[in-house]
Amino acid sequence: MALQMTTRPGADVRTAIEARAATVRMGGRPVWEDLDLSVHAGAFVAVLGPNGAGKSTLVKAVLGLIPLSAGTLAVLGSRPGERNAEIGYLPQRRSFDAGLRVRGVDVVRLGLDGDKWGLPRPGGRRRDAEQRVAEVIELVDAGAYAGRPVGEVSGGEQQRILIAQALVRRPAMLLLDEPLDSLDLPNQAAVAALVARICHTEGVTVVMVAHDVNPILPYVDHVVYLGRGGAVSGPPADVITSETLTQLFGTPIEVLRASDGRLVVVGQPEPPAYHADRHEHP
Amino acid sequence: MTAAVAAAAGAHFSWNLLDDVRQLFQFQFMVNAFRAGTIVAVVAAVIGWFMVLRRQAFAGHTLAVVGFPGAAGAVWLGISAAWGFFGFCLAAALLIAGLRPGDGHGYSEESAGIGVIQAFALASGFLFVSLSRSFLNGVNALLFGTFLGITNAQVIVLLVVGALALTVVAAVGRPLLFASVDPDVAAARGVRVRGLAVLFLVLLGLTAAEVSQITGTLLVFALLVMPAATAQLLTARPALSLAVTVAIAVVVTWLGLAVAYFSPYPIGFFVTTFAFAAYVGAAATRRVGWRRARALVAA
């Protein structure tokens, strides 16, 4: 069912993620089956689909946290989990607790060396660390609020801090699990544009899980749709068509082209209806 | 009891502060009280700072309360109360660790189980007190603290256990901070979030057992929560906030000991009162600071 992906000009031809007939079963029931996927390094990949379709499961499989039941999966040319040090991961979440009294800059710093034992030693290495933290905060335009307690800044600002945290170790790949969830529309557009800019200027492969395709549609190079009718992957022009999506979801979906050339997806099934359907499955 | 000892020693407060300080340290029991109090304050401040950050105050309170049946049982059996404090607090820490869900988050889900342990601990404590009838006088000391009759050996035990706890925290401090602030990302980065959670509960149990021996089991929070909560109100910089926590804990302990020496009332009350005053002061300062900042923005 996989469609061939076009390589973006100038992008590294190295393959960031390669899946062949990958299947994950949980409790004897397939979460998704026969997923074929080929993501080139430096591409912006959107993982789309309704709640419960296994989008986060795919992210966890890429990180090696959930084993495949069948098929193969290679991440950055190795087995999943082996090169996690080169992956910046942003898990699905709502937000930091409003009472958390730790600064945004500390959250970013933890992403750099928070997994190391012992106390941080003063000296050159510490200055390098502080400089790198300042660089990524600059990169995501979070300078104005990175010194404030992270629980007190807005959802969009927290999301930028978390993207900086994911970027701080110069990863080859960013795995972002629903970073636009719980943001208002202007912030969704701004964070999507920020991620696209980082993808292009830093040459980082971006895998973004999203509930709604529209805010990121202008930027994506490659789309993975997980749905009831199986999994489809390919360039947006091939996958995001009324025919493919209608077949995938088993419900009428229209893809419209706006006057400025942008695609708009209308009529995605509501998550609760979809959940009920999944539970009927044997 | 405090007043009796102080009176027998001829202690009386004067406005000659140098003379007061000389009086404070003229007896070995007071020197030991300051040694023990300082050790306990530093350990409680550091562990308490992480506890407040991790929102595990309820687990901390329960571990402190568990010290009560531990110590009462030890006294009933005729062994040192310290054995009871450490034994019961450690066992309860492992029990609470066993309640935790496997995925490393969901502090709130465990609260019902912790509550069950706390209730049973208090009930057992009162049973042990009833069983050892001669011991009624000591109940107050167990619940609300004492600084009398701390031996050199006790100070050494407090020092060794405290140094052990602080060494472990220094070794795992950064991953522990990471796992406390951001468990999912920490886990993805290879931090053993679950293992650290168990380790931290054990450290919390040891600390609760140490602090109980000075402030009493019901007032452990005076040193475990109040200094950390105060410092986190004042600053969001982790290193600075940790240092402020230690400073507040040590100062309120010293003040509490000094005032309790000259007064007939128990030490737990004074330590708690000074810590409470620090918290209220910090909260008020922050309010005023905000208002001033807002006024500046409006101007």
Q: What does this 3D model show about the protein?
A:
The complex is a heterodimer of chains A (282) and B (299). By secondary structure, chain A is α/β, with parallel strands linked by helices. Helices cover 31% and strands 24% of the residues of chain A. Chain A has eight helices and eleven strands. A six-stranded mixed sheet of chain A has the order 5-6-7-3-8-9, sandwiched between helices. In chain A, helix 2 (104-113) packs across helix 3 (124-139) and helix 4 (155-167) runs parallel beside helix 5. Chain B is mainly alpha-helical and 299 residues long. Chain B contains 14 helices and no strands. The interface between A and B is medium-sized, with 31 and 26 residues.
Mean pLDDT of chain B: 86
- How far is the N terminus from the C terminus of chain B? 58 Å
Quickly count the domains of chain B.
1
Which pair of chains forms the biggest interface, and how many residues does each contribute? Answer: A-B, 31 and 26 residues
Q: For the CA atoms, what is the radius of gyration of chain A?
A: 19 Å
The CATH architecture name of chain B reads: Orthogonal Bundle
Report the sheet-strand fraction of chain B. Answer: under 5%
How many strands, which pairing sense, and closed or not: the largest β-sheet of chain B? none
Report the order of strands and helices of chain B.
Answer: HHHHHHHHHHHHHH
Q: Could you give the count of β-strands of chain A?
A: 11
**Mass-distribution shape of chain B:** globular
Helix/strand/pairing class of chain A, anyone?
Answer: alpha/beta
What is the C-level CATH assignment of chain B?
Answer: Mainly Alpha
